[in-house]
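Lab notebook, bench 4. Still working through the backlog of constructs that have no structural model yet. Next entry is a single chain of 106 residues. Request: give me the structure tokens for it.
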Amino acid sequence: MLGRIRILAALLTATSVLAFAPAAEAASWLEKNFALFGPRYSGKLPPCDYPVALSKIQYLFGLKERRFWNSNLSIAAFEQVRDVEWCVVGVDRNWPFNPACKAAKP
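Model written out:
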């Protein structure tokens, strides 16, 4: 009998919480514009062969290799840059495109 009362009390509580819960609403103008600081993203990306972007990729790759893999592996140069996902056999460390991939097609 005590178990049934607990179940009934739990159901009644859950029902009352759902019945009196406020409806979901869109954010107000204050919530949309308050404390949204940071870089402005325009969606405009540089071309794939943009020298500054390639330099950053080269630097970050070398940094990752030194920090996480204790390796002196680095990117020496870029040739024929185009928009394709790729991997290097033996360096695709988490193997998302293995075995022995040349180019991973989207």
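Notes after review: DSSP finds three helices and two strands in the chain. The chain has a mean pLDDT of 78. Flag for follow-up if needed.
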